[in-house]
Amino acid sequence: MSPKHPTPLDQPEPPKSSTPHTAGKTPLMSLKEIRQTLFSLAEEEYKKFSSGLVPDAGPMLGIRLPELRKLAARILKSDWEQFLQENPGEYFEETMLKGFVLARCPLPPEERIQRLRAFLPEIRNWSVCDSVCASVKEAPRHPQAYLPFLRECLASQEEFTLRFGLIMLMDHFLTEEHLPWILEEAASVRHPGYYAKMGAAWVLATCCAKRPEETLHRLQKGGMDEDVRRRAIQKSLESYRVPEDIKQELRQLRETLPKRPSLKVPR
């Protein structure tokens, strides 16, 4: 009689790790496996399309955001702490992936903010900035923790740190309580960077959709960067949420502004 083949129940159990950050988690996807997955998701045509939209992205693979979010979800079920510590950030998508994991990993607000602060220098384009901002879903539930941090961002001379503060406020705090001071902060932006200017203009246009008359009055008042004011007017005119009577006044305001060259996307 042939010897009995061992069944899974006969096999000894693998030793359990006593490392706190791996307890109860599935085995970590190694950085090599994560990168292999990234390369398998890359699309050359999408890379060409995306590189035109994000000219300052650096090395890019060409991966759609939903796929990156799915991969982030897999990492979050694994040892996300090790990933955050060892992710090389060589490719645009690796930086984006780190931002997604950082935005969603189970941390108290104060610690997440500390890590976001450390992550800010890695943000070098509008796409990572805006996508990560949208992913920090806990922010409106913890205004006492987040608002001082975002005010700190608004005072920065770093273009994407400033934009991060603006877009976070727009995404998560444009409420009746906070809109008046956020409107004034956006109108007060004085930064030479294209993406800082455009971030401020986007906030102002969103304020115009929520508080049309108040925002119109602030745009008419002036005392702000003229590039920001022009772009805010343009974005408000393009919005379906701004009432037509407000748009008419914005058109009249635009006609009174001194002529100047259009703001160009940096290449």
The total beta strand count reads 0
Radius of gyration: 23 Å
Helix content: 55-70%
Total of helices: 14
Describe the structure.
The chain is mainly alpha-helical. 61% of the residues lie in helices and 0% in strands.
Short description:
With 267 residues, the protein is mainly alpha-helical. Helices cover 61% and strands 0% of the residues.
Which tags fit this structure?
single chain; 267 residues; mainly alpha; 14 helices
List the helices and strands and how they pair.
Layout: H1 31-41, H2 44-53, H3 65-76, H4 80-86, H5 92-104, H6 109-119, H7 126-135, H8 143-154, H9 159-172, H10 179-187, H11 194-210, H12 212-221, H13 226-238, H14 244-256
Helix pairs in contact: 3-5, 5-7, 7-9, 8-9, 9-11, 10-11, 10-12, 11-12, 11-13, 12-14, 13-14
